[in-house]
Recover the amino acids of this structure.
């Protein structure tokens, strides 16, 4: 019995880690309707900035998180500027409606991600960086006979704060209103006088802030910070987003948890090398039976 | 007037040049310099540069030796492309690398058909050296390490043993060689599983493994996965003794896992604390060149591999061809390397002495049992 509870708990904690990444990812997709391939690198950069701050000043964890979020917002701003904005420079109606223009950003964000990753590799080498052990958030906590770690609680709390905060922002503030307007109909939003450029930049800053914080916390959770650390979580977040219906943030979170649970429970039955296949099997089943995703309505975004 | 003299001198040198030009002998080195395993390739390159510089300064042969490095990214397709390139370069008389067994074996097919001696510092798959008479390696294989570790663990009285290893050509040999010996000597393997290299979360496997209540765990992993595994064992409060192979032998294991690495047993061929002068010289030069701590086993392997090839070239000189270098490599006997003496047997496999070590107070320490 304890065995299954323990596997379930591990699955939940894995799911929360994927969810943390999926939130920012889905937010950006919701607005632009195009995948931001560089989100995984924002996550990695967040972890590296955190590590730099920790080794240089050794401030309390909360200060590190705040600094990393600021850095994340800055990276998001820069990423938008380099990889996305140049493709919006034509403002005539044909260009704005053009899929090709929008989808070019698939390539430009992929290019940004490759440059960022290889740059980190040249600067730091591709090995796992040494993380000061005091900062790791992996001290075990015994919870009714099941072992979790401090990091699980922190990550859970952060995911809840992000989710609730984002829902508040999107539904109760003017910024949120303009984000929803742009995501619904960018051209229409432009015609009613919404500054779409600024809205998109804001979305990138918020999404990347969350991505960077996620990278830092997961890095400290596992004690593993390295240039290609964003790749696998990026794929998992992408799968969660697609399963959740592409643009539903709560849907992505729930699907991230389903992914985590299926991975840890699959390991209980089959060799771990097959665990990913079970998770991706769910993705295929979802796409076959619910082409809109589990929580997608098809129209409403964000 | 002055200019004329200079001009005359230049012409004289220019004319005389070809007759006195130093011959340049080239060695190819295929290794991962970018990608997920770049840290190993970078270490190899640093070690090779130390060895080469020393050799060229020593003036053992009146020719200059050069190493051409090519980045394989630990990708078999890249490896084969590099192998073709090396084979086409008529100046290259021998090749070092690659890092993984998989890439080394893929490239070996090219070297086999072209007749190019290949020496890998780290390919430990049993089939590698069997590919042709052109393949050599100077690392102990799991065929030696597996039974050695099995005997060591059984001698401690462990009866039920769990085995986990990374899913790779190498990882499979870790398991098969060990398990065969354990079964032959009357031990029981209660759990055996593979994981994908770079797995972030070992907790589901550890939980599953602990359920079978083994006396000890035998692991086939490199230091990154090792550090993750050990940290997460500690997290889950699992206190089963862990044994591992020389692949995990790296100071970074201790750096990453901290106190959680304490008490891990593993085998090693290279100990930076070895007081022998040639070992200490290498450790000193390594620290000076890279600014890092003591070198791990892999850079030491690369350092020896380069020196073994250079020694073969020296013996073959002046008739340095691919064939003559191969023949001289095959004659390597008791080569005094930093990872111990290397002798190639008839199957081009090295025999080396293994040392039992334990992690104690943040150091690898040699132990009796």
């Amino acid at each position: 019995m304890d065995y299954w509870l323990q596997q379930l708990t591990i699955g939940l904690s894995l799911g929360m880690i994927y969810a943390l990444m999926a939130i920012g990812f889905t937010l950006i997709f919701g607005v632009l309707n195009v995948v931001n391939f560089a989100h995984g690198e924002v996550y990695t950069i967040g972890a590296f900035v955190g590590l730099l701050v920790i080794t240089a000043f050794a401030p309390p964890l909360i200060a590190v998180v705040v600094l990393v979020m600021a850095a994340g917002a800055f990276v998001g701003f820069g990423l938008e500027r380099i990889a996305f904005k140049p493709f919006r420079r034509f403002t005539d109606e044909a260009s704005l409606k053009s899929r090709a223009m929008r989808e070019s950003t698939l390539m430009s964000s992929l290019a940004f991600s490759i440059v960022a990753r290889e740059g980190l590799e040249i600067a730091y080498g591709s090995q796992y960086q040494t993380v000061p052990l005091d900062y790791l958030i992996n001290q075990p906590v015994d919870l009714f006979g099941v072992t979790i770690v401090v990091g699980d609680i922190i990550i859970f709390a952060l995911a809840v704060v992000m989710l609730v905060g984002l829902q508040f922002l999107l539904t109760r503030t003017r910024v949120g209103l303009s984000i929803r307007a742009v995501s619904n109909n960018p051209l229409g939003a432009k015609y009613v006088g919404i500054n779409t450029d600024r809205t998109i930049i804001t979305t990138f800053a918020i999404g990347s802030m969350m991505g960077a914080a996620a990278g830092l916390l997961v890095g400290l959770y596992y004690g593993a910070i390295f240039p290609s650390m964003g790749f696998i979580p990026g794929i998992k977040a992408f799968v969660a987003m697609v399963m959740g219906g592409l643009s539903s943030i709560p849907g992505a979170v729930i699907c991230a948890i389903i992914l985590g649970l299926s991975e840890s429970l699959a390991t209980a039955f089959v060799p771990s090398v097959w665990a990913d296949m079970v998770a991706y099997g769910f993705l295929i089943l979802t796409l076959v039976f619910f082409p809109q995703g589990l929580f997608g309505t098809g129209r409403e975004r964000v | 007037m002055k200019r004329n003299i200079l001009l005359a001198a230049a012409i004289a040198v220019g004319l005389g040049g070809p007759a006195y030009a130093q011959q340049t002998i080239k060695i190819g080195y295929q290794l991962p310099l970018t990608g997920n395993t770049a840290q190993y390739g970078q270490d190899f390159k640093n070690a090779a540069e130390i060895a080469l510089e020393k050799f060229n300064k020593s003036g053992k042969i009146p020719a200059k030796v050069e190493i051409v490095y090519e980045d394989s990214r630990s990708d078999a397709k890249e490896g084969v492309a590099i192998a073709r390139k090396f084979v086409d370069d008529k100046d290259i008389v021998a090749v070092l690398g690659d890092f993984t067994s998989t890439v080394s074996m893929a490239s070996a097919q090219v070297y086999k058909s072209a007749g190019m001696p290949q020496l890998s510092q780290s390919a430990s798959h049993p089939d590698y050296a069997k590919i042709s008479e052109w393949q050599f390696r100077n690392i102990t294989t799991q065929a030696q390490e597996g039974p050695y570790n099995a005997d060591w663990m059984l001698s401690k009285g462990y009866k039920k043993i769990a085995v986990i290893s990374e899913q790779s050509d190498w990882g499979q040999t870790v398991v098969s060689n060990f398990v065969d010996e354990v079964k032959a000597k009357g031990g029981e393997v209660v759990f055996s599983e593979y994981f994908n290299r770079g797995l972030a979360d070992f907790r589901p496997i550890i939980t599953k493994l602990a359920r079978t209540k083994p006396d000890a765990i035998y692991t086939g992993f490199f230091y990154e996965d090792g550090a993750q595994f050990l940290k997460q064992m500690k997290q889950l409060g699992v206190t089963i003794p862990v044994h591992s192979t020389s692949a995990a032998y790296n100071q970074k294991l201790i750096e990453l896992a901290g106190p959680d690495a304490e008490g891990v047993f593993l085998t090693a061929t290279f100990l930076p604390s070895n007081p022998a002068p040639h070992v200490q010289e290498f450790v000193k030069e390594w620290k000076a060149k890279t600014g890092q701590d003591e070198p791990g086993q892999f850079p030491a392997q690369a350092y020896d591999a380069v020196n073994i090839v250079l020694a073969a070239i020296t013996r073959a000189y002046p008739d340095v061809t691919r064939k003559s270098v191969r023949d001289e490599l095959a004659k390597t006997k008791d080569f005094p390397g930093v990872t111990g003496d290397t002798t190639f047997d008839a199957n081009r496999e090295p025999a080396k002495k293994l040392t039992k070590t334990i992690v104690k107070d943040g150091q690898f320490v040699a132990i009796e049992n």
The mean pLDDT of chain B is 88. Residues 136 and 290 of chain B are 28 Å apart (CA to CA). Chain B touches chain A through 36 residues (CB under 8 Å).
